[in-house]
Amino acid sequence: MEPANNVTEFILSGLTQDQELQQVCFVLFLLFYLVIVLGNLLIIVTIICSEGLNCPMYFFLSHLSFIDICYSSVTAPKLIADFLVERKTISFDGCIAQLFMVHLFGGTEIFILTVMAYDRYIAICNPLLYTTIMNKHVCSWMVVASWVGGFAHSMVQTLLTVQLPFCGPNEIDHYFCDVHPLLKLACTDTFIVGIMVVANSGMISLTSFVVLVVSYIVILASLRSHSSKGRLKAFSTCASHITVVILNFGPCIFIYLRPSTTFSEDKMVTVFFTIITPMLNPLIYTLRNEEVKNAMRKLWSINFSKSCPSL
C-alpha cells in the first residue's frame, strides 16, 4: 500500500542561511528583478511602438521578453521575500503551481529560441523567400505552437510529480519547487519517474540545442557567399542569439539531463537561468543591435503623449 500524502506545506532552504548575507542578497536580487522587468518591458514597448521593428525577428523577441518577465516572476519575488524571513515555507498547492509555471515558461522559452533560429536561417539562407515563408500568419502559429509545447512539457513534469506520495520530511533543499528536489522527498521509489523526467526535460533541452547548433553551422557556412557588410550584419544578429542560447541551454542541460540527483552547485546554476539570463537578454539584444538602439533613441525623443501606431 502506498503511503498517504500528508504534507500540506514545504520548507525551502533558500540560497543561504547567513543572516547578513541574506540582507545583502535581498538588495541585490531586488535590483536584479527590477532590471529584468524594466529592461524587458522596454524591449516590448520599443518593438510595439516602432514601425521599423515590425519584422518576424522582433516579433519573436517581444515574446521572448514577455516570457522572461513571467519566468523570473515565478521564482524571484518569493526568493526576495524569503530573504527577510527565517522560516521559508510554501504550501503544497503553491509548490506544485510554481513547478508548473517554471516549466511552462522555461519550456516555451526554449521553443521560442528554436523558432528564432529558424527565422534567422530562412532570412540568411533563403532571403528571396523570407517574406513568403515567414509571413505574419506563420509567425503567429509558431508562437502558439511554442506555448502549446511548453504547456505539454510542463503538464508532463507536473503530473509525474503530483502523483507521488509525500509523507515527510518536507524540507526542500532549494529556493523554489523543482522536480529533482521534490523527487528526493517522495515516499516511494522514484527511479522510473526520474528517468521520465530526464527524458522529458533533458531531451527537449538537448534536442533543441543540437538543432540550434546545426542550424547556426549552416548559417555561418552560408555567410561566405555574402558581402562583407551583409556578413557583418548577419553575424551581429546571430551572435546575440547564440549568446542567449548558450546562457539558456547550458544550465538547463546541466540541471535536467542527468539522473534524479541534486548537487551543491544546483542553486547557483538555477539562479543563473531563472534570474541572471532574463536580466542579460535585454542587454545582449540592445547593445549588439543598432536597429533596436536607434528605435529606443527615437522613442525617447518623440512626444510620449502620442499614441503608438497601430500594428
Fraction of helical residues: over 70%
Order of helices and strands: EHHEHHHEHHHHH
Large-scale geometry: globular
- The total beta strand count reads 3
Q: Output the CATH homologous superfamily.
A: Rhodopsin 7-helix transmembrane proteins
Protein name: Olfactory receptor
GO molecular function, one term: G protein-coupled receptor activity
Subcellular location: Cell membrane; Membrane
Organism: Chelonoidis abingdonii
What does this protein look like?
Residues 39-285 form the G-protein coupled receptors family 1 profile domain. The chain crosses the membrane at residues 26-50, 96-118, 138-156, 191-223, 235-257, 269-287. By secondary structure, the chain is mostly helical. It has one domain (9-301): Rhodopsin 7-helix transmembrane proteins (Rhopdopsin 7-helix transmembrane proteins). The protein has helices at residues 19-49, 56-82, 92-125, 130-133, 136-162, 179-185, 191-222, 228-256, 266-287, 290-301; strands at residues 9-12, 89-91, 171-172. It has a 3-stranded mixed sheet with strand order 2-1-3. The chain is globular. The mean pLDDT is 85.
